[in-house]
Amino acid sequence: MAANHGFLMVLPVAALSVAVNGHPWAGSVLLLLLLARVWTLRVRPTWVTTLVLLGLFGAFWLWRDQQLTQRQRPFDAAQEVSATLRVQPDAVVVRGALYYFVGQNLQTGERLTVRGVAKSAPELRTLQRLTRPTLWRVSGQQQGVLPATNFNQFDGAAYWRHRGIVNTLKLTTVQQRTVAATAWWQWFSDWWHGWRARLIHYCERLPGALRVYALGLLPGAKAAETMTELQGMQRLGLLHLFAISGMHVALLLAAVEWICVHLRIQREHWEWGMLLGLPAYFILAGSGSGVLRACLMRGVQLAGKRCRRPIGTLDAWAGVFLIGLFVNPGLLFELGSQLSYGLSLGLILLQGESRAWRQGGLTLLGLPSLLTGVFQWHSLTLLANWAVVPLFPVTLLPLTLVGTACYPWLPVVSQACAWLLQQFDVGLAWLAQLPGNVPFGKPVWWVAWLWLAGTWWLFTRPPQQRRRWLLGLLASYGLVYGAIHLPLTGEVAYFDVGQGDSILIREPLNRRISLIDTGGHLGFRQPDWVPTTPPSFAAMRTNINYLKSRGIDHVDDLYLSHHDADHIGDLPAFLSELHVKRLLVPAGMEAEPAWQRHLRGELPPVVPLQVGQAMPLVVRHPYHAAPAENENSLALQGTFGGLSFLFMGDLDQAGERKMLAADAHLQADVLKLGHHGSKTASAPDFIAQLRPRWAIISAGRQNRYGHPNAETLATLRAARVPAVSTQTSGMIRYTYRGAHGYWQTKLKGAHES
């Protein structure tokens, strides 16, 4: 693993990227350390080149950031705009009647994300059959891209900002769509985007699992059922095979080279042809981070060879990495890019190791990224990689190519390939269900950095000294696992689930995990012409994601306040992803079949609740069994960290009066307002009696119901009760230790209680 000057020159640029895009102090310290390392080489050209690169990249990133900041609009204030958009045909993704794409506003030159809804079957068919660039004359609401509103949630605003996009447009009307004229300088790109659109349409007609594999490996698109079909692959940490790492690109290019050699085409001709064809293949394969890296690696090496200046693999990687940072300054903060560039670098630097040490090294190099990104690791991952990676070039990729190519003429062959791929997925899903999945949780970012540095240090040691260092490295994983799973603090967290409710109560040392409601969305009947899509649950990105980031794989008590979909709609996802020990519902709801109809498998025990029970929260409502409408909603109370919390579900003012009549001394420090701040709840006399120090409102942004209501906010102001809403603050959590704690909101910071 000897140092290479070209490789060392790009590392300070990477540190500068870290400082600019996420961790200013840590990135700056790392930059100074790396500059000191380059200085110790005492090679003047290397030092000068490093400083020039830092100056160029720093100036470019500063200018780019200023441009994006000037262009960005507030995410919580939409503005009506009219625009003419230029849209590539392969950019439009359709899911049911919804569609979204990235388009360019021709008036301003700005690229933005666009969302819309097809209004008719002909419009939907038009969207599904686009094969040429189009101009859209539209009007809609434009605002900034919404950042992550829950802790440890995927940050869409940062993701798109790295790609030069800071605003989004929600279409209200599409006045006209016309085929866009193609200027000569756009012809190449437009032509290949058109062919990619045709390839996507073709792959979408393929049967079963073949559709998922073909879309992922050929045009680099995602089928609606991808995450369901590849669930086993995801849990076993094998998704790097699937376009993330760009492995399939290298294999396909190697296959083309093999064909050219055996057809006796002169090497000079096919090498120039491949070099010139790589930009086209980059577009055709989806232009992802892994595809860019693989295409550039091959292109740089071919160009060096044709120009009689051979470029080493490590120098090629360094050059490609610089280009990747130029295209995407946040490359180092994205899981796909980390795996693609990190694992490819590992393959280069560990090529002299034995197979066991190389496989172990790649696992250790990828582990910090996986734990930071998906929060879990399967102990069978090493075995799965050892068994599956060799199968990929000789079985999975050929089955995909053969099945895709044969579909128009021999559909029976495609059906057979689809069946074989599905059996492979079933086998992986079975393997993933075996004991060994480790719900690790999300480590602190600097710990992940230390693990990565420790892994590289491990492989600088002679093989005979590595075992003790390896044991130390693994012990550090054990210590961090213990710290995540046995936290000294507890918390009460109000998730931002849009127009819905979901509240976590986690006791210190994770002694008991309780959840009040799951969140969900009200469903509306779709016209018959709208194709069905696999069910999706927002909880996978919000509350379930947060629980997994804290290493939590179970819920002891899941309270369902009543049967409305915005409170329990995501229950199927919880029952599928986590071990739920029991469901607690308002008395009467246990006898209603409607809410249980969409749940699969065996339900946990269902416990009906009414006043007088403490499970362990004190039940304040209901007083008798009845249908689980708003007026029969659960109201629950508990004391955590020295504060008394009251959770009102969707209970109305009549229910509040019942509570006051039953307990004239009822009080609470923190009140979660009933019915999302609607005027049907939070009566003035109820607020006056409780005298809460804080009022929490859980409501969706720009919701159709106008929650929270102006009357309710006026009631709170009159009682001098400060209100905090998930609409403006995102997730709200109270973290406590003993009888003291502090409040945090995702969008507005923290303060002491």
TrEMBL record:
Q: Which NCBIfam families does its entry note? A: ComEC_N-term (TIGR00360), ComEC_Rec2 (TIGR00361)
Keyword set, alphabetical order? Cell membrane, Membrane, Transmembrane, Transmembrane helix
Recorded protein name is DNA internalization-related competence protein ComEC/Rec2
Membrane topology for this entry? Multi-pass membrane protein
Q: Where is the Metallo-beta-lactamase domain?
A: 499-701
Q: Which InterPro entries match?
A: ComA-like_MBL, ComEC_N, Competence_ComEC/Rec2, Competence_DNA_uptake, DUF4131, Metallo-B-lactamas, RibonucZ/Hydroxyglut_hydro
Q: Which Pfam families match?
A: Competence, DUF4131, Lactamase_B
Spell out the subcellular localization from the entry. Answer: Cell membrane
Q: Which organism is it from?
A: Levilactobacillus angrenensis
User: What superkingdom heads the lineage?
Assistant: Bacteria
Q: What are the transmembrane regions?
A: 46-63, 236-256, 276-296, 316-336, 356-375, 387-410, 443-460, 469-488
Ranges in coiled-coil conformation: none
